[in-house]
């Protein structure tokens, strides 16, 4: 296929445009449609909203539910401030915490089935270090279908299989997006008064140990699109050096699910069968202890379930093999493993960027607004630490309410012929390059280099070497070839992945201390430095170069003692003499 | 190498090129062509990474790109139970 074969451009306009139909984007579209006339909300999705985003196949529970009687917003803010080494914007956590319970009730009314006790109350479990926040959804495989039904009911205009490539910006304000139809190759522009980015994690950054490009921890459709688009729109990104690294079932690369197995008695052990962690709740410190054990004399690490009763194991399998990553059972079967017979080998994931699990994201305030007027962000790509699924649903709704408010006070933007024409050229040009570089090869090379140079522990020389490689690869991106619309999608993603690799390298170089356990473990600056008790903001400066700024951390909402702040540095169970 | 042998390898290569069109490789998404219904494209719509397509000649679903997340969306959504997703060889 060549450019001359392409159909006409697609041109749409609306009041609120939501980019990404996963968890955050779905609740954003639902909320925005409540506040606007029918048809004035467009939900754009690279895949199909029925099966898209991090929970395409559902989710087995809410990891951070704040249910009255079990936890309070104040307690939650305290817990996450501790779990994230103090570097949090407490206003963001607070606004999540007070809106979490109303969202759970909303989901309950929509028919999401939560685990309840015999008396009908929510059956909350404890996995975190201090409080109880885990609310199982044993039938959570229906969640995406339920959200899609609510979207349909509100007459949201859903545009599937169109991928955004850039946010259109005029006079410093977001006025829509450009993109491409990944089936027909048609160039698309959607003008809008407010734009909400809900594009998920940067999940195709590191290369999985298996070497299979799409065998990632995150849904591989989430290639860091949102991080890159927000940067090019001029928005600030926050604490990108706080990588996402997760414990997982080795090779399968899916979650080991401390949240499912922990409350039922499962836990991690080393090769000697001994526990080494006080708490399996995910934090950078927990990952550092996990990583040390993995590579130490008592490694590797296993998920131990074989001491549990057969009915408990069946209950665990009933959840893990049906929801979120249901092919896990098939993987174990192929290897001849069973939870009942022996502990299952675990490993750590490749690196990624994801606020949902750690803290690296596009900087937003408590209204979901980025630093660019008219541009909002929510979900895994927005800077609310440890936000998980419920945080995505909550902030999708918060961002949408403010995006509607912004839209009602704004004029409909007019066409920007020059900017849209330039983006059209950039997006479609891979179709004209006969004999160019195949996107999957360039992607493999970037991601292999991410593993070689960015994977913690980090050092200045390694990070600088990685950065030099990424700068050289910029030239290769200009020679990518696409043979069809699918190839155009992959070529655009290569650009997003390379941007995220560069942000990750530069941010890691900039923060000259160690912080968040393994996530930002610098061998050449091995300790936390009080001078660096700040947020590190990254943005596009004059001439396109990356600029940094330190932003103060404010703990005035919930103050913690030194003792509390260092809680998560005492996760290791002391070795027996 | 013996020139005769080289000739025979070349002629065999020529024969296998056209034969490859029908060979089944070890790909993650396995479609039972007898069960798969012509005209249906539920699996192609479901795939989060868009790695499936309808074979224009046979009218049945098949894997177009080796980019599977082994998420099972296609298998779970297929109204005819015509799909089995295998864990990709490198991961298996």
What do you see in this structure?
The complex is a heterodimer of chains A (577) and B (92). Chain A starts with 9 loop residues before the first strand and ends in a 12-residue tail after the last helix. Chain A has 15 helices and 17 strands. By secondary structure, chain A is of the alpha+beta class. Chain A has a domain at 247-348: Succinate dehydrogenase/fumarate reductase flavoprotein, catalytic domain (Flavocytochrome C3, Chain A, domain 1, Alpha-Beta Complex). Chain A is 34% helix and 15% strand. Chain B contains three helices and four strands; from the N terminus they run H-E-H-E-E-H-E. Chain B has helices at residues 3-19, 42-46, 73-77; strands at 29-31, 52-54, 61-63, 83-85. In chain B, the strands form two sheets. A two-stranded antiparallel sheet of chain B has the order 1-4. In chain B, strands 2-3 form a two-stranded antiparallel sheet. In chain B, a hairpin with a 6-residue loop joins strand 2 (52-54) and strand 3. Chain B starts with a helix and ends in a 7-residue tail after the last strand. Chains A and B meet through helix 9 of A and helix 3 of B.
